[in-house]
Every structure is written in structure tokens, then in C-alpha cells.
UniProtKB/TrEMBL annotation:
GO terms for biological process: glycine biosynthetic process; L-threonine catabolic process. PANTHER family: L-THREONINE ALDOLASE, L-THREONINE ALDOLASE-RELATED. It comes from Cryoendolithus antarcticus. The modification N6-(pyridoxal phosphate)lysine is found at K241. It comes from the Eukaryota. SUPFAM superfamilies: PLP-dependent transferases. GO terms for cellular component: cytosol. Keywords: Lyase, Pyridoxal phosphate. This is Aromatic amino acid beta-eliminating lyase/threonine aldolase domain-containing protein. GO terms for molecular function: L-allo-threonine aldolase activity.
């Protein structure tokens, strides 16, 4: 069935038909469409990776080209890479399967052989959530930086304090600084990025950005995508976190970086054949969610949730700058386990005091959340059921 109406415009009925999946058994004829509505994602505050892909993404998959990306033959993939390179103001881009792969490929591409060290925020994804990949792939020492300004982001002075410029044989010289934006929902200001970048480049230190949620900083008005990316030699951007694609990230940098990264990606098992099934919905995610302005609405809803929590006497541990709200459960005298269990009773999926607002969170989810607030902060009771052990759902953060 044709997905367009002959003029390159998506046909709504064709998309709806294409999105339908039927299952039959002896007793019933059940029509299931897991693409047409957010489903459980509409009530899931655990992360912005839980969004349900949309019918337009399915349509893009159904009509994508199916050529080989290892041979660089696939037009859909090549087009996405050119599109993102242009969007970020970089020479070239390369598809990767995940944000972790994007960071690991980028950093391995930049680094030669040991001894070398990487300076990064002590809470960063590359340090805490990538299975020790920097040590395994690069043989690098990672030095964690603790922000000292009380605002939740690292400064040039923080980075300088941990960077090793010495050539003394007892030292492990810093060859790369990796920043993350946003981190814990906090924006790293553009001015601070520019200061760190200028200083790093004056000492021939490479700059990488874990920009999985850089879209959020830009949507918050902190700076343009091109201005942020100009501060770094490489940037990893995620199509799944926040934007809603089912899979995929991309890294950007110079053409020389891209070609070296393609080699590293292959060695990590990241070469894809018919990559259009990944890149087609990724393009839709960028166009519909980021360029379509949906992230700003998420930030407004996050502020709404924080204000509601505070109106019942609750406290937050971090300011709400983008799409994350941090409830202070300790101040509320509520354990993480109880919070998760009570959340299940009102029909919400939570992993702790961090709530991540994505574009499929609607007013009904906020209403359920308000019921939970009354239970936790006002002593009201809920009559729902607990389906999953809190211990299995509990997670620090990622």
C-alpha cells in the first residue's frame, strides 16, 4: 500500500492501515495497534527513553530505502547524516546504535595509546553508566570533576583543577575533556562551554560532548545547536532520549574524525546493513519532536509538576530547567520503595524521586501524580494494586 498520496504527502488513512497488526485466536479477533497511541508510556516517568514510536515513524520505516550502510550505499542513512551535520554545523556525521556507542566510538577515535586521562563530571554517563567502556576500549584513566558552584554544572575552574598538563613520567596527562549537556536536567551554559573549550584548545586537549539530551538545552533557550557544537571536536546526539525514535544515536565532527570513527564503529560491531529502518524514524523524531517544538511543552509540564509538588509542601533537590523534576523523598519522609509502590497504585511507573517528562506525558498522568502527592505528603490512601516489586523498578538514574 502507498504511504503517500502521490505528491509526497503522507496519507493518514494509509498510515493508519499500515500501522495495524492483527492477532487472532480461537475465541476472538483482536486488532492491536501499538504505534497509534502512547500506551503505557503516557504514564511512565522513569525516563524519556520509554516513549512509544509514532505512526509517522512506522510509515517512514515502511517506505525507507533498504541498501547497505557498511558500503555507504543507503540514501536514507546518508541523508540523515548530512542533515544532522548541517543542523549542528559540523562537516560530517555517523550513525551509531546507541548513546553509549556514540560516546565510546568518539572517545576511542580521539585517543591514541596510553598513558592518557579523561576529565569529566563525576556523575557523567561515560563514567557511571557505560560499563567501564573508556577503561576497556581506551585504557584511559577517568578523573571525575565535582561541581563546586552549587548550581549543578562544572565550570572551567573545576575542570582546570582536575586536568593534568604535566609531562612528568609519574603523571597521566589529560588528552580529552568530556562534558555532558544536559546532566540531571541541568543546563551547562553556553558561555561556560565556550570558556572550557577555549582553554582546552589552548593546551591541545580534545573536547567531546555527550549531547544525548543537548536537544533539551537548546529547547530551553540556552543557545543554538550550532553554537554549542562549535565548542567541541565531537558530539554524540541521541534520537531516542526525548525525541522518541525507537533506536539510534549519531556522532558529528570533522570528515577525518568520521572516517576514523567508522573504522572504530566496525570494530565494536556497529556496522549496519539495511540501516534505513533505523535512520528513517530517527529523521522523523528530529523533525517532529525537536524542530516541531514538543520539548518546550515538556519543560512547561515539568515546571507544572514541581509547582504542584511544592504546593502540597514537598521539596525538590534540583531546579527544574528542562524536563526533569527531582522530588526530595527524604524530606517527605518517604522511602524510594514506598514511592514506587504507591505510584503503581495510582497507575504510574516510577523509579524513584527523579521524574522525567517526555512529550507523551499528558494531563491525565499529572492528575494521577497529584493523587500520589496527596498520599505521600498529606497521608491520604490509595486503593490500587502493586504489580511489580519496587526493588526491581528502583534505579539510581541514567
Amino acid at each position: 500500500m502507498a504511504i503517500t498520496n502521490g505528491h509526497g504527502v503522507l496519507d493518514a488513512e494509509a498510515v493508519k492501515h499500515e500501522a495495524q497488526h492483527q492477532t487472532q485466536n480461537a475465541d476472538s479477533d483482536v486488532r492491536i495497534n501499538n504505534w497509534s497511541t502512547p500506551g503505557p508510556a503516557a504514564f511512565d516517568f522513569r525516563s524519556d527513553v520509554v516513549t512509544t514510536p509514532t505512526p509517522r515513524m512506522l510509515a517512514a520505516i515502511a517506505s525507507t530505502t533498504l541498501l547497505d550502510d557498511v558500503f555507504q550505499d543507503d540514501p536514507t542513512t546518508n541523508s540523515l547524516e548530512s542533515f544532522i551535520a548541517d543542523l549542528t554545523g559540523k562537516e560530517a556525521a555517523l550513525l551509531v546504535l546507541s548513546g553509549t556507542m556514540g560516546n565510546q566510538v568518539s572517545i576511542r577515535t580521539h585517543l591514541g595509546g596510553p598513558p592518557h586521562s579523561v576529565v569529566t563530571d563525576h556523575r557523567s554517563h561515560i563514567l557511571e553508566w557505560e560499563a567501564g567502556g573508556i577503561a576497556a576500549w581506551c585504557g584511559a584513566l577517568i578523573k571525575g570533576v565535582v561541581p563546586s558552584n552549587g548550581k549543578g554544572y562544572v565550570t572551567l575552574e573545576d575542570v582546570q583543577a582536575q586536568t593534568v598538563l604535566s609531562e612528568d613520567i609519574h603523571a597521566c596527562p589529560t588528552k580529552l575533556i568530556s562534558l555532558e549537556n544536559t546532566l540531571a536536567g541541568i543546563v551547562l551554559p553556553l558561555e561556560e562551554c565556550q570558556k572550557i573549550s577555549a582553554w582546552a584548545r589552548s593546551h591541545n586537549i580534545t573536547m567531546h560532548l555527550d549531547g544525548a539530551r543537548l536537544w533539551e538545552a537548546v529547547a530551553a533557550g540556552a543557545g543554538s545547536l550550532k553554537d554549542y557544537c562549535a565548542c567541541f571536536d565531537s558530539i554524540s546526539l541521541c534520537f531516542s532520549k526525548g525525541l522518541g525514535a525507537p533506536i539510534g544515536s549519531i556522532i558529528v565532527g570533522t570528515k577525518a574524525f568520521r572516517e576514523r570513527a567508522r573504522h572504530i564503529r566496525k570494530s565494536m560491531g556497529g556496522g549496519l546493513r539495511q540501516a534505513g529502518v533505523v535512520t528513517a524514524p530517527a529523521r522523523v523524531a528530529v523533525e517532529d519532536t525537536f524542530l516541531g517544538g514538543k520539548l518546550t511543552a515538556c519543560h512547561d509540564r515539568a515546571r507544572q509538576i514541581a509547582a504542584l509538588w511544592e504546593s502540597y509542601g514537598g521539596k525538590t533537590t534540583n531546579p527544574v530547567e528542562t524536563n526533569m523534576v527531582w522530588f526530595d523523598l527524604k524530606a517527605a519522609n518517604c522511602s524510594v520503595e514506598r514511592f514506587i509502590e504507591e505510584g503503581q497504585k495510582v497507575g504510574l511507573r516510577l523509579l524513584g524521586g527523579r521524574l522525567v517528562v517526555h512529550y507523551q506525558i499528558g494531563e491525565e498522568a499529572v492528575e494521577r501524580l497529584e493523587k500520589l502527592m496527596k498520599v505521600v505528603l498529606k497521608g491520604e490512601r490509595s486503593n490500587g494494586t502493586v504489580e511489580h516489586e519496587a526493588e526491581k523498578l528502583k534505579m539510581e538514574t541514567e
